[in-house]
Specification:
10-stranded mixed sheet; Pseudouridine synthase; single chain; about 25% strand; elongated; 2 domains
């Protein structure tokens, strides 16, 4: 039999949810059966699936289900040659804030082996257990650059989503758009509906009364012959919110072909940057504030004809 001693990373989790993460290739029904007959035990005893776990408990599994031991994180062979990595803005034992470059996907599924998670897996910091590894607390599109926050410990990873839901996290963006808005400032209040069958080059969300409430404030901070730079504040955090809202008012983000921009800036490139981030520290509660400089090519794009 194989035995695992639980840590603070598992503290408070339900047993069935822990086992689903620990044994992703085992059917849930099979897990429940093993709990009933005692093939999986907690502190040597049978346990119910809704048991709340605590640090120090011992989980006993059949040897056939023993998870592989986690190896020391190491960069993939092709990672160094790619030269695409985020800049670390802040780090302590619980929290990491990075400045993500455009072109680096925050999550797998972008068609590339290298993404922010593979970069994180290659770093020597952060807690890793059989059921936890550091991951971003929110998302930035692959084409969007700027500030991204990551929970390095289980305590921080659990607290960060609560802070987002409680509207304790403020995010500010800068975008270069096609055309110059007539109003120097305004609010876009339009519901967004996720399109389930959208193709790769079609809008992923659309304005629809059946969608979720979404609100974006904008302010023109620079204007050129055919483009403008906007500062944006989000009151909600919907998928593709800024991209869809700016397209809705007739000023898509420059280079965002998916949402109707005529500008061609390179494969998958568009000019949206997460420039400001403010949040309470997920463990200490200390107020934190970060800024990322606007990329130089944003200003150059505004002045182009």
């Amino acid at each position: 039999m194989h035995e695992i001693e639980l840590t603070e990373a598992e503290d408070g989790q339900r047993l069935d949810r822990y086992l689903r993460k620990l044994l992703p290739d085992t059917a849930l029904g099979a897990i429940f059966k093993m709990l009933r007959v005692g093939h999986i035990r907690i502190d040597g005893k049978k346990a119910k699936q809704n048991l709340r776990l605590a640090a120090g408990m011992r989980v006993t599994l059949p040897d056939s289900l023993a998870p592989e031991e986690s190896a020391t994180p190491r960069a993939p062979a092709n990672q160094q040659s790619m030269g695409v990595a985020p800049r670390i803005v802040f780090r302590d034992d619980d929290l990491l804030v990075v400045d993500k470059p455009a072109g680096l996907a925050a999550q797998p599924g972008s068609g590339q082996d290298h993404n922010l998670l593979t970069w994180l897996d290659a770093q020597p910091f952060g807690v890793r257990t059989a059921t936890f590894r550091p991951a971003p607390a929110h998302r930035l599109d692959r084409g969007t650059s700027g500030l991204l926050v990551i929970g390095l410990s289980p305590v921080a990873a659990r607290a960060l989503p609560d802070a987002f839901r409680a509207d304790q996290v403020q995010k500010g963006y800068v975008a270069v758009v096609d055309g110059v808005p007539k109003n120097r400032a305004g609010t876009i209040d339009a519901p967004l509906l996720l399109r389930e069958n959208a193709r790769q080059h079609q809008p992923k969300v659309c304005i629809d009364d059946a969608g979720k409430h979404a609100r974006t404030d904008f302010e023109v901070v620079a204007a050129g012959p055919s483009r403008a730079m906007l500062r944006l504040r989000l009151h909600t955090g919907r998928t593709h919110q800024i991209r869809a809202h700016l397209a809705h008012i007739g000023h898509p983000i420059a280079g965002d072909r998916r949402y109707g921009s005529p500008s061609v800036l390179g494969h998958g490139a568009f000019l949206l940057h997460a420039a400001e981030l403010a949040l309470p520290h997920p463990v200490t509660g200390e107020p934190l504030q970060f800024e990322s400089p606007v990329p130089k090519h944003f200003r150059a794009a505004v002045q182009q004809k």
